[in-house]
Design goal:
The protein is an alpha/beta fold. It has one domain: Alpha-Beta Barrel (TIM Barrel), CATH 3.20.20.100. About 40% of the residues lie in helices and about 15% in strands. The chain has 10 helices and 10 strands. Strands 3-4-5-6-7-8-9-10 form an 8-stranded parallel beta sheet. It has a two-stranded antiparallel ribbon with strand order 1-2. It is globular. Bound molecules: NADP nicotinamide-adenine-dinucleotide phosphate (NAP). The site of NADP nicotinamide-adenine-dinucleotide phosphate has 28 residues, from α9.
């Protein structure tokens, strides 16, 4: 598969989404500004933030300082869990746009499902897309059951579902479902939040390709056609996480990685969907 840092996927909205983006969860203040600045210099054009991360202003500041053409950027932010419902969703998107200093988002996601408000929230999300406040809208942390539930009251399909995705939680069924439904899967915590980077199976594959285990994990996302958003505030790692295009994983190594699934989640808050288990 011939890919580059400029590679994109076409969303069901008709817009293109870069396969690689910079995550910003737990990036604070000046370090967020510096990380975004570094990422843009390296060639990232896709940034992932959220109202809940409290760093939209810093992401916006770095974008504006850089002076990059808005049309060349892909900016995602997310609707917080405690701000859902029809009116609240409208208020929240306006606040996020103001924080970021942007006229429109590229992608607006429901950060976590709130089932009791899901249909009215989705109605607002659809209108937000129709009015062009966000070019595409989607969901995050949605299971197949919730995606099916969404369809019972709306024929408007999310463009993206952002979920935890790495070999230790290879959500193959969800990936297949989303592919069939025309929903782009996006991987969060693709580096296992740094917790499993020394797994011996990963180390062995990394040595074979002369790459780091982080790069193997990210390339595994790309080989699956999954958008990936590694977070780092460390300049050398921001560069490392974008050096993914001078190798590809062979079938044998993909099979080893696919077999590592243990349904292991590093993000599992109290409010997670019940089918995640405890
Ligand atoms: N939708 C959701 O509910 C949700 C949930 C979680 C995350 N996300 C999004 O997904 C993004 C990525 O997920 P994440 O932040 O949870 O975890 P991640 O990207 O898997 O891992 C980030 C951690 O790995 C470290 N790291 C980064 N590159 C590395 C490398 N090359 N070698 C070694 N360590 C490295 C980072 O440290 P330094 O920063 O110190 O370099 C940080 O501690 C988030 O930032 C956020 O934008 C969304």
């Amino acid at each position: 598969m011939s890919l580059s840092i400029h590679s994109t996927v076409k969303l069901n909205s008709g817009f293109d989404m870069p396969l690689l983006g910079l995550g910003t969860f737990r990036a604070e203040g000046k370090e967020t500004v510096n990380a975004v600045r570094e990422a843009l210099a390296v060639g990232y054009r896709h940034l992932d933030t959220a109202m809940m991360y409290r760093n939209e202003k810093e992401v916006g500041r770095a974008i504006h300082e850089n002076g990059i053409d808005r049309a060349d950027l892909f900016v995602t932010t997310k609707l917080a869990r405690d701000g859902q419902g029809y009116r609240e969703t409208w208020r929240a998107v306006e606040a996020s746009l103001e924080n970021l200093g942007l006229d429109y988002l590229d992608l607006y996601l429901i950060h976590w499902p709130v089932e009791s408000l899901m249909h009215e929230t989705w109605k607002a999300m659809r209108e937000i897309a129709q009015k062009g406040l966000s070019r595409s809208v989607g969901v995050s942390n949605f299971t197949i059951r919730l995606l099916e539930e969404l369809k019972t009251e709306s024929d408007f399909i999310p463009a993206v579902n952002q979920v935890e995705f790495h070999p230790f939680i290879f959500q193959e069924e969800l990936l297949g479902y989303c592919r069939k439904a025309g929903i782009q899967l996006e991987a969060y915590s693709p580096l296992t939040r740094g917790r499993r980077l020394d797994d011996p199976r990963l180390v062995e594959i990394a040595e074979k390709y002369n790459k780091t285990t982080a790069q193997i994990l990210l390339r595994w996302n790309l080989e699956h056609g999954v958008v990936t958003i590694p977070k780092s505030v460390t300049p050398s790692r921001i560069r490392e996480n974008a050096a993914l295009y001078d190798f590809s994983l062979d079938q044998e190594d993909m099979a080893v990685l696919n077999d590592m699934d243990e349904n292991l989640r590093f993000i599992h808050p109290d409010w997670a969907p019940p089918e995640w288990g405890s």
